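Milestone 3.1: sequence recovery, worked example.
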């Protein structure tokens, strides 16, 4: 069934592009497409970019192709590359990236138009989101917080920005570059860091923009680990944009996160955990002074001698407990 567009009463109506990357979300993509069509917003366009799904996705997309600004299906180089393809074709003043298993909440496009009328110079809007399960039951909510800058974002001390709850002025991509297609998981994290490093901050939109679906099949442990590792590498790109006081704090933060993901990766490796942990220790020998890493090594059946009490203080590394003892 086709969903007719209604009429919006907004006095100021920017054009808005919605981009939906998809891969094998045939169970949910129809609800995603309809949630955009049902906005009743007359100046919207919707692109769907399918990465070569082998489920029902393409059949669903074809049912709505007359309502879409464009779509394609075929192997690609990941979600960022797929989104970049649509960005090149987009004509909207604002862009929303809406995952295919998520749903745009009613009134979202009108809320963006309202905000544009109130704050015409706003380039980056961040709204509220709810998290739902595969049966559309609410799990939790994400509310944006305006405080914090680049250092807060890089160190994961900022409220996460839920997919689909952000609108970017399209000119940001021409000014600051496309999404980094070399990143399979952390392309949004890196783009936000890029904007913050160049003085572009988000404005909070007091509207629930999206329902973000969280299912057991959505993210495996390996995907979570890979996303975390990519975020660490992305954060390192922006250390020069921090103050001299902030840099060592970030380096320590990133090193601790590396340890956590190395331990998680070892647990996922099962029988080869010892070999993997040894490899990480050879790359970062100061980790031997970390209680957390030593416990993981012992848990994998690997005994390590306790370092001298002053070693952690001399290296400047180690977790909090080790450093306190060294002091």
């Amino acid at each position: 069934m086709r969903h007719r567009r209604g009429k919006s009463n907004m006095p100021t109506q920017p054009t808005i592009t919605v981009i939906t990357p998809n891969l094998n979300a045939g169970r949910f993509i129809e609800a995603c497409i309809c949630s955009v069509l049902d906005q009743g917003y007359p100046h919207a366009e919707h692109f769907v970019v399918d990465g070569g799904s082998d489920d029902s996705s393409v059949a669903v997309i074809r049912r709505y192709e007359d309502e879409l600004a464009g779509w394609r299906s075929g192997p690609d180089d990941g979600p960022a590359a797929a989104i970049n393809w649509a960005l090149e074709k987009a004509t909207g003043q604002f862009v929303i990236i809406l995952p295919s298993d998520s749903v745009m909440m009613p009134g979202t496009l009108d809320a963006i138009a309202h905000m544009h009328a109130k704050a015409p110079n706003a380039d980056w809007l961040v709204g509220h989101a709810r998290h739902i399960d595969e049966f559309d039951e609410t799990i939790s909510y994400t509310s944006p917080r305006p405080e914090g800058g680049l250092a807060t974002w890089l160190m994961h001390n900022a409220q996460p920005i839920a997919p689909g709850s952000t609108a970017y002025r399209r000119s940001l991509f021409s000014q600051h570059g496309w999404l980094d297609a070399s990143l399979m998981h952390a392309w949004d994290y890196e783009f936000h860091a890029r904007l913050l490093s160049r003085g572009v901050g988000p404005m909070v939109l007091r509207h629930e923009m999206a329902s973000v679906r969280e299912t057991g099949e959505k993210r495996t442990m390996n995907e979570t680990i890979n996303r975390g590792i990519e975020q660490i590498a992305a954060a390192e790109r922006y250390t020069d944009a921090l103050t001299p006081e902030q840099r060592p704090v970030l380096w320590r933060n990133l090193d601790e996160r590396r340890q956590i993901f190395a331990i998680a990766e070892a647990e996922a490796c099962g029988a080869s955990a010892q070999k993997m942990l040894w490899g990480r220790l050879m790359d970062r020998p100061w980790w031997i002074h970390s209680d957390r890493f030593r416990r993981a090594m012992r848990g994998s059946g690997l005994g390590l001698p306790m370092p001298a009490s002053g070693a952690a203080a001399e290296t400047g590394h180690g977790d909090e407990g080790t450093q306190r003892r060294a002091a």
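The two ends are 70 Å apart (CA to CA). The longest strand covers residues 203-213.
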